Amino acid sequence: MVGVSEGPQVPRRVVIAEDSVLLLAGLTKLLESAGFQVVATAADGAAAVAAVEREQPDVVIADVRMPPTFTDEGIRAALVIRAQWPKIAILVLSQYVEERYAADLLSAHTHGVGYLLKDRVADVAEFLDALRRVAAGGTALDPEVVAQLLVRRGGDPLGDLTDRERGVLALMAEGRSNAEIGATLVITDSAVSKHINSIFAKLGLYPGDAGHRRVLAVLRYLGAGPASP
To answer: How many CA atoms are closer than 13 Å to the CA of 187, on its beta-carbon side?
Structure first.
């Protein structure tokens, strides 16, 4: 999923759902300095849904664990938002790797979704790049989430992929473009395209398939997508 450049005259409108006052203040300042418009904030899941209904933002940033139980209120709010307003992009932040939530979020709608560890916010450039990619309709999955998924997936349905193809698919799951994949793996763009086409073929994803093959490949990788017939 390749990010789309944004027109600077139209700032992305953001709702932030985060109960940590310090992180919320930091995110707000960071986003506003980067040209985003923070239109509302929320300290719990219910308030987040209400803010989204009221403001109709372009993107929502939500913590997985929020009051009152600090278990899954944030992700449940994100899933409600995704179901009711599927065009609104969602970037979920989590303290720990909880890959089930990533699969849950991706299982219904596959555009404009991100799942990052909170530690990534410290890398401002990487975080903003991920946020812009998600806001533009792409995906951004934390490398740690991808790494754990790869370990847990076993051989089904990815057993036919080579190590290089798995590496390419892992970077696809992070939301990297072909050029970024090539730069990371130090291979040419044509080699990246060849690997991706091979991945599509081995996963049974053909041009006639409904949906975006790149997204379907990532979903297959996460175990959230449909299996090949």
So the answer is: 16
* E-assigned strand segments in the chain: 13-17, 37-42, 59-63, 89-94, 113-117, 139-141
pTM: 0.70
- Residue with structure tokens 């993107």? 59
- Cα separation of 66 and 74, whole Å? 5
pLDDT digits (tens, 9 = 90+) for 141-182: 777 766 665 555 544 567 788 999 989 988 887 778 899 999
Asked if 127 and 183 sit in the same domain, the reply is: no
Residue 160, token pair as written in the block: 């036919």
Residue 11, C-beta contacts closer than 8 angstroms, at least 6 positions apart: 35, 36, 37
* CA proximity to 47, closest of 23, 12, 74: 74
Q: Running DSSP on this structure, what letter comes out for residue 105?
A: H
Residue 1 resides in a domain: no
- The verdict on 28 and 109 lying in the same domain is yes
Cβ within 8 Å of residue 18, ≥6 positions away: 24, 27, 41, 42, 43, 61, 62, 63, 66, 93
**Residue 123, token pair as written in the block:** 């890398």
Adjacent-strand bridge partners of 97: none
Which tokens in the block code for residue 80?
Answer: 């409600």
Residue 184 CA to residue 216 CA, distance in Å, equals 22
Q: pLDDT averaged over consecutive 10-residue blocks of the chain (229 residues)?
A: 46 94 94 96 95 97 89 89 93 80 65 85 90 88 68 60 90 84 94 90 68 67 53
228's tokens? 């090949």
Both 129 and 34 in one domain: the answer is yes
